[in-house]
Amino acid sequence: MKILYQNSFKKSYKKRFFNNKRLINIISLRIQQFNINPNDIQLRTHTLSGAKKGLRSLSVTGDIRIIFYYDQNDNAVFIDIGTHNQVY
């Protein structure tokens, strides 16, 4: 499995976390953890419903989430990152 990053994810990441080195390190560790085991219980990966049906979410910290989906090649495509209120 590869992790692909949509431009919307890159833009949100840069805008929201560019100046916060501590969070950048945590995000990097969680992405590495996801790459090793996407079902790691610590990531609290789950499917979404409602307007975001078909997408999935993983927890970076208590409030920061990454929204993603799996494409037809089973690659994880990250589309957004931010606090719970920012991504939902």
From TrEMBL:
UniProt signal peptide: none
UniProt entry keywords in alphabetical sequence: Toxin-antitoxin system
Protein's UniProt keywords contain Lipoprotein: no
A Pfam match: YafQ_toxin
Superkingdom to which the source organism belongs: Bacteria
InterPro entries xref list: RelE/ParE_toxin, RelE/ParE_toxin_dom_sf, Toxin_YafQ-like
Keyword match Nucleotide-binding: no
Entries under NCBIfam families matching the protein: RelE_StbE (TIGR02385)
Protein name: Type II toxin-antitoxin system mRNA interferase toxin, RelE/StbE family
